[in-house]
Amino acid sequence: MFSYLSHLECTQCGKTCPCDRLIKVSPCCGKVLFARYDLAKMRKEVDRDALASRPPNMWRYSELLPVNDPANVITLGEGGTPLLVAKRLGESLGMGHLFIKEEGLNPTGTFKARGIAAAVSKAVELGAKGFTMPSAGNAAGAAATYCARAGTELKVFMPKDAPDANKKECVLSGSELNLVDGLINDAGRQAVAVAEEQDLFDLSTLKEPYRAEGKKTMGLEIAQQLGWKMPDAIIYPTGGGTGIIGMHKGFKELLELGWVEGKPPKFFAVQASGCQPVVKAFDEGKESSELWENATTLADGLRVPHPFADYLILQSLRETGGTALAVEDDEMVDGMHELASKEGVIACPEGAATLVGLKRLIKEGQIEPGMSVILLNTGSGYKYLHLIKG
Ligand SMILES: Cc1ncc(COP(=O)(O)O)c(C=O)c1O
Ligand SMILES: [Zn+2]
Fold it and tell me: Which residue has the least CA distance to atom 15 on ligand 1?
């Protein structure tokens, strides 16, 4: 058996719906739909140790991914990224178990490849002929390459000041690039309107069920790389929140399968001081966020002023005992220097933000020296070399 996908479930009210057709948000509440799997059956039939001999990419977790027929998988070899022991950095911070999950090694240089591979593969399996995609930058670059590989049409909607590398990924891969005078939420409105007009499938994050499934594999991989153990904490640069939401879901599935023991890691969301809707909502004890006006940060991936799945991000932080914090742009650039000079990791500013966050969390006593902690570097610094002087 390839996938144990069984149905979809509304994250607001729990109502279920079938997974045999293209669908976006829940018909009942207009909220995020989660993919659900027959975990009881899988627990009886699948041995976790059998996974080790499969090719080291994210499709080694196919039973927990939505694609039914292996022939429908559209892949560029995403996933299977290293979990690096950060020995020198850890020593300088008094941390004995510090790791960097190096997502910069994915196709198109970011973790976005995982979510897009899952979503495009599943949508094509269900009959999608073409796509629209609003993106802060990296997700569009990933979508452009996967749609090229699938041979399907893609119309991208991206803020006009998005990184050059992302625009060029779209141009190179033959997708239609529409530059929007505004931010990701403005791009999102245009993408949805064009999708409706032209019978295309819109890939906005968490407004379809499967990008989160691809991102979930970061968590599955971390657990496997730690010898089927969950870390104590994951520090994650949070924009739309798909990574936190996906990984948290993945850890819960592993627990239900009996593949790991204990409790999911504490999730710490790092945002930019110029765009921190999740931090504000967390601090105010709210269940959802408000639009962050005039969002600015050099970390384009964190420039998400009003995440659609804010309520799920906040639930993950609170349920696991984590928190949310904001860091400055210049601190991120300093973090890029430190990650590269101490560990040889050329990180994106978003990834570097997690190091800044770690230092703050250590100072505040929220992270203690004995904890196993993962810094999630979501992308390669090669797309951001313009930020480095010299
Ligand atoms: C490099 C990078 N890091 C982090 C993020 C935020 O990711 P998420 O939507 O999972 O919160 C993005 C999203 O654009 C990104 O491009
Ligand atoms: Zn509902």
Answer: 301
